[in-house]
């Protein structure tokens, strides 16, 4: 006989939570690091603080950061670095043709 308070089976809520934890990208590893740094367009880090180089996804978050970390410096929206504008897809595509392309099985053709 098992205890009355102990459930014998997993609940639907618990199974859904496990599936969500297994399939959702939580930002770990190299993909998460690139996403946080804003190197690729579409990353979560859009704005960069000009004083401490901390990144934030939007203007409101950056203003909160600025008020908390740099209270003596007035907040100027024009000084923020927009990482998505500076690392546009067109600039990355123009640099690609200069790189040698790998041949068969990853070796470089001469």
Automatic annotation (TrEMBL):
Question: Is Nucleus a UniProt keyword of this protein?
Answer: yes
Identify the stretch(es) annotated as Disordered: 1-50, 64-110
Q: What is its main location?
A: cytoplasm
So which domain of life are we looking at?
A: Eukaryota
The cellular component terms of Gene Ontology attached to this UniProt record, alphabetical and capped at eight, are: cytoplasm; nucleus
Does the keyword Coiled coil belong to this entry?
Answer: no
For this entry, the protein name equals: Protein METHYLENE BLUE SENSITIVITY 1-like
Q: What is the lineage of its organism?
A: Eukaryota, Viridiplantae, Streptophyta, Embryophyta, Tracheophyta
